[in-house]
Design brief:
The protein is mainly alpha-helical. The protein has six helices and no strands. Residues 62-89 form a coiled coil.
Length: 165
Amino acid sequence: MSAGNEVTDVYGTDVERLTALRAAETALKKTLAGLSNPVQGVMKARISLRKASADPDQAGRAELLEKTLTKKQAELDALVAELETLKASFPAAGEPDSTEPSKAEIIAGVLNALEPGKLKSKKDFMEFTSTVRTFTQILFKEMGILLTTIKELKRAQASNDDDEA
């Protein structure tokens, strides 16, 4: 019996579904939190490379900066791929009575902001990090609510089991 089946057998499908959702939200929160450094690194490397490429005396430095940019871009690309994968874990629309955007909408907004040419200035970067921070805070709040719901469901199941015994 797998661990997932044990959860279903003991607590039911609601707990299993909510636990999976919380795990996906945790992964999303970690990915979003990890975006700022690679984005900033790519931006700085591009600026430095542009300056070094314009100066013929810095050809060696330009080569080094090109390697740095490639490395930073690979880190960012891996996080973008992870976001694309995580996007499939969430429904496209949010809760009907919620004022918060759905997780899929949050991810789509972040992916849109990360498209080439969108983050050109320090102001753009600051707006991006502020938006990501806000999304991370929303996720953290929702993860707490989910955890409370999961615990309540488990307590209710345990109470039902005690009543049956």
